[in-house]
């Protein structure tokens, strides 16, 4: 049975989702034939495939996959119809209690998960059962016509899960698979997965010495090693130069703030589930210790506001708002553009963490603009131009745009409908000037305002949500922000949130995979490696490296006793963009032999010519 969905959601299932849903039943049929004692839970289609959760005494391992796949092929070959029957609640419960649901025979052992899932179905909703061959399952559908349609499949992985995602409930085995319309599409998908594995930033980050995650520090907390820090600094220098051109002012704010600050903004308790627990002041802790108060009582008191508390910063916005509010502003001063590489903290579940792309502490290239209503369109356009500049420079021009709007039926949004309408109209007008494909997605807005997200497709076809621009009429009202207008009366400014990179950690992880560690010269932590053929030319190699360093090039000398071929192979493994080789002939001629990491051909030229060429390439940030 799939995860329960509304009738509308089921009707909107794509052909591929329908196929994968059906293949989950093929998998379940095979599992039941091999291990009849299995207790099946749910098996929905998911992105890129499907899974089925099950309770089984046998611990499935990848070594079992060929056996399971062979049985699945038999189910496919049978080419049985997926037959749907509508039954009463009493009939369905009788089937489940007899062990007939999620099984290939009447086992006489209750199908415990199917009984529980039946109890979740509302009284006024019809109950359906799907049958293929000798397998019966509680399922709302829909399916393809026959099991024979599910030919192009592959089992992918096995993992642990909790029933209904509740860690207080039973631990299950979750078997993942994928399915496509034909073997060609399946093979293309598997090839992409292999390419993604080859580009995995966690592996490359370790091999290239870019970052480290240490249990003693904490999961989801990135330690930037010197080479990774050089990449980060290059990205920050790049965006800082662009911000200077657009008249931004850089600010710095602390890593914590008072709870009341985030109560005013709405981040607390709105984002409470993804925030670290509140921190009490020392005198409060001492007082509660004397009273033998529990940790739970402390946290409840902090959340109620019974005593002073602080919060690890989940967002930079409230801090920037307070910087704006610290000065008197006239309409002539606006727009005020405040930018910060601000580190924020989010509590992510351990199972959701993933290298640099899903972390608990990350730095945003954050900025907040305060402007008059008449300036909104121009300022949003400037923000969009900045995002386009960033993505274009990094060779990520293949993107689509998502306009995230509020759902008028939801109560999660703050502020008046009038202000929301104005903000959404401003963003819709701005996104239409981009001349790119965009979609509108209801209910995906931030709680304080609509947003434009750039969804980038990387070199192997994966989508990544990167730059974002948001228009906010609500936080300025919540904080009582004003400026004096031309009429000498106070007015409320409009606030624009924007972050072209989003998270530097996530963005860098994406770049590692996008470039497969082969960064363009301007981003590479080591831009040139000087390779002396022997110790006889080591002094000249050191002198050449010094000249390159004086020109602002990040350079290193290979001082090992390895043969020149081994030195070149090592430089290529380290993804160094350029190598210059120095032997006796080059020293005698006053030249260097230049080699690019992707080009075996050598060119010989004066060192000064190479310095001119490499510094020009770095300055232009070419790919």
Task: Please tell me about this protein's structure.
There is one protein chain. By secondary structure, the protein is of the alpha+beta class. The chain folds into three domains: 7-196, Threonyl-tRNA Synthetase, Chain A, domain 2, CATH 3.30.980.10; 231-511, BirA Bifunctional Protein, domain 2 (2-Layer Sandwich), CATH 3.30.930.10; 528-620, Rossmann fold, CATH 3.40.50. 37% of the residues lie in helices and 24% in strands. The protein contains 21 helices and 28 strands. The strands form seven sheets. It has an eight-stranded mixed sheet with strand order 11-15-16-23-20-19-17-18, sandwiched between helices. Strands 1, 2, 3, 7 and 8 form a five-stranded antiparallel sheet that branches. A hairpin with a 5-residue loop joins strand 19 and strand 20 (463-472). The radius of gyration is 30 Å and the shape is globular. The chain starts with 6 loop residues before the first helix and ends with a helix.
């Amino acid at each position: 049975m799939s995860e329960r969905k509304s009738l509308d959601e089921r009707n909107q299932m794509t052909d591929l989702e329908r196929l994968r849903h059906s293949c989950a039943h093929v998998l379940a049929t095979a599992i039941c034939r091999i291990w009849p004692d299995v207790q099946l839970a749910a098996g929905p289609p998911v992105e890129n495939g499907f899974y089925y959760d099950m309770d089984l005494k046998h611990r499935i391992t990848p070594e079992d996959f060929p056996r399971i796949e062979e049985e699945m092929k038999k189910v496919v070959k049978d080419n049985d119809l997926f037959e749907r029957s509508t039954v009463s609640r009493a009939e369905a419960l009788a089937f489940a209690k007899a062990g007939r649901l999620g099984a290939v025979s009447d086992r006489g052992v209750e199908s415990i998960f199917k009984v529980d899932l039946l109890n979740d179905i509302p009284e006024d909703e019809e109950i359906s059962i799907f049958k293929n061959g000798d397998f019966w399952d509680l399922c709302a559908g829909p399916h393809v016509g026959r099991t024979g349609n599910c030919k192009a499949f592959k089992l992918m992985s096995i993992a642990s899960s909790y029933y209904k995602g509740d860690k207080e409930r039973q631990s299950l085995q979750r078997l993942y698979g994928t399915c496509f319309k034909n073997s060609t599409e399946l093979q293309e998908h598997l090839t992409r997965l292999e390419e993604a594995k080859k580009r995995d930033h966690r592996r490359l980050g370790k091999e290239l010495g870019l970052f480290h995650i240490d249990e003693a520090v904490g999961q989801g907390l990135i330690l930037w090693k010197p080479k990774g820090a050089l990449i980060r600094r290059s990205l920050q220098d790049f965006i800082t130069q662009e911000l200077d051109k657009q008249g931004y002012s850089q600010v710095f704010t602390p890593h914590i703030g008072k709870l009341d600050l985030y109560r005013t903004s709405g981040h607390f308790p709105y984002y409470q589930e993804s925030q670290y627990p509140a921190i009490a002041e020392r005198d409060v802790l001492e007082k509660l210790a004397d009273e033998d108060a529990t940790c739970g009582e402390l946290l409840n008191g902090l959340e109620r506001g019974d005593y002073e508390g602080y919060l690890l910063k989940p967002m930079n916005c409230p801090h920037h708002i307070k910087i704006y509010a610290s000065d008197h502003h006239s309409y002539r001063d606006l727009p005020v553009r405040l930018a910060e590489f601000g580190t924020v903290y989010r509590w992510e579940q351990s199972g959701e963490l993933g290298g640099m792309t899903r972390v608990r502490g990350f730095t945003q290239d954050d900025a907040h603009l305060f402007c008059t209503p008449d300036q909104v369109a121009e300022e949003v356009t400037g923000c969009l131009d900045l995002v386009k500049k960033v993505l274009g420079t990094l060779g990520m021009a293949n993107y689509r745009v998502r306009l995230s709007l509020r759902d008028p039926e939801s109560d999660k949004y703050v502020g008046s409908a009038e202000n929301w309408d104005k903000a959404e109209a401003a963003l819709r007008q701005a996104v239409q000037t981009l001349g790119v494909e965009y979609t509108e997605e209801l209910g995906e807005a931030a709680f304080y305002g609509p947003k434009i997200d750039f969804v980038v497709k990387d070199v192997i076809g994966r989508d990544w949500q990167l730059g974002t621009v948001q228009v906010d009429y609500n936080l300025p009202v919540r904080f009582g922000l004003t400026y004096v207008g031309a009429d000498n009366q106070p007015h409320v400014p409009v606030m624009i949130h924007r972050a072209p990179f989003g998270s530097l950690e996530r963005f860098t992880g994406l770049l590692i995979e996008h470039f497969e560690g082969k960064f363009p010269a301007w981003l590479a932590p080591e831009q040139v490696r000087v390779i002396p053929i022997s110790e006889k030319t080591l002094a000249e190699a050191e002198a050449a490296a010094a000249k390159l360093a004086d020109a602002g090039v990040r350079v290193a000398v290979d001082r090992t006793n390895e043969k020149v071929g081994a030195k070149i192979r090592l430089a290529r493994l380290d993804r160094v963009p350029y190598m210059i080789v120095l032997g006796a002939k080059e020293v005698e001629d006053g030249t260097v032999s230049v080699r690019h990491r992707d080009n075996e051909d050598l060119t010989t030229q004066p060192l000064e010519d190479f310095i001119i060429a490499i510094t020009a390439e770095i300055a232009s940030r070419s790919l």
